[in-house]
Each structure stands twice: as structure tokens, then as C-alpha cells.
Amino acid sequence: MKVILIKPYQKYKVNEIIEVTDGFAKNFLIKNGYAQPVNKQTLANLDRIKTNIKTNLAQEIEDAHKIKEELEKITITFELKTHNNVVHGSITHKAIHKEVEKFGIKLPKNSITGDSLNTIGMHKVLIELHPQVKAFLNVLINEAK
């Protein structure tokens, strides 16, 4: 019997059509809500779901490219205290995230990668907006007076 998975099960993914025995399909997969039997209605529903997934993915990538353009135009400035050319403190991802939000740009959580910044000068911070879209943000760290 062919079934369409509606929940992930073992090595199989959601929206995948698999061939299993009748008993396993009826008594376990369908009964426990892991799958639906393949028929005209469920196949049409599967096609609709796959189309929606593709359009949503295209929209997410387009939005990420817009945010990338905005991010690469701005430079964020921070100040760190120094004493005898030794920097005290560092700029964390959370601080960078808050500064970016002041420009009206909403970043996904945990999108800023790399270590905290603790040296004076210009830094390029990698921001992963989407698995396919990455942006570099300019961060300038000055010496506090």
C-alpha cells in the first residue's frame, strides 16, 4: 500500500510517498497519524502543499535579499575602553543585534555568526539571513575617550 507521510517517521521525510505493507500502513502509520493513504484527493493536496512550499521559499529568499541590501549599506559604531593599548570588554552578538534593530531591520535569532569583537578597528560581521543568503555588516569599534 502506498501512503503519504504527514509527519516525519524514522528515515522518511514529510510529504514523501512510500510503499509499505497493508497491515503496517493501516494499523500503525494511518492509525497514529503519520500517514494518509494515496488517492486522488491526497495527491492533489500533496501537489498543493509542495507548490506552497516552493512559493514560500522563494518569498523568504527575496525578503532575505532585501534585508541583505539594507545591512550592507549601514555601519554600526561602538566604543570600547582601553588602557595602555589593552582593550577592556567586547562587543557581543546581542549588542550588534540591538543596534541593527535601531535601524528598523529585523534579524532572525542566532543569525550573527563568529566570535565577539574585542579589537579596535573596522570589522565585517557575517550574518546568515537564510541558508542561501549571507550578508556582511560593517562594525566600527573606536577607542572610548
UniProtKB/TrEMBL annotation:
Residues 62-142 form the Large ribosomal subunit protein bL9 C-terminal domain. GO terms for biological process: translation. Residues 1-45 form the Ribosomal protein L9 domain. Keywords: Ribonucleoprotein, Ribosomal protein, RNA-binding, rRNA-binding. Coiled coil: none annotated. InterPro entries: Ribosomal_bL9, Ribosomal_bL9/RNase_H1_N, Ribosomal_bL9_bac/chp, Ribosomal_bL9_C, Ribosomal_bL9_C_sf, Ribosomal_bL9_N, Ribosomal_bL9_N_sf. The keyword Ribonucleoprotein applies. Transmembrane segments: none annotated. Pfam families: Ribosomal_L9_C, Ribosomal_L9_N. Gene3D superfamilies: Ribosomal protein L9, C-terminal domain (3.10.430.100), Ribosomal protein L9, N-terminal domain (3.40.5.10). GO terms for cellular component: ribonucleoprotein complex; ribosome. One of its GO terms (molecular function) is structural constituent of ribosome. Binds to the 23S rRNA. HAMAP family: Ribosomal_bL9. Belongs to the bacterial ribosomal protein bL9 family. This is Large ribosomal subunit protein bL9. It comes from Metamycoplasma subdolum. The gene is rplI.
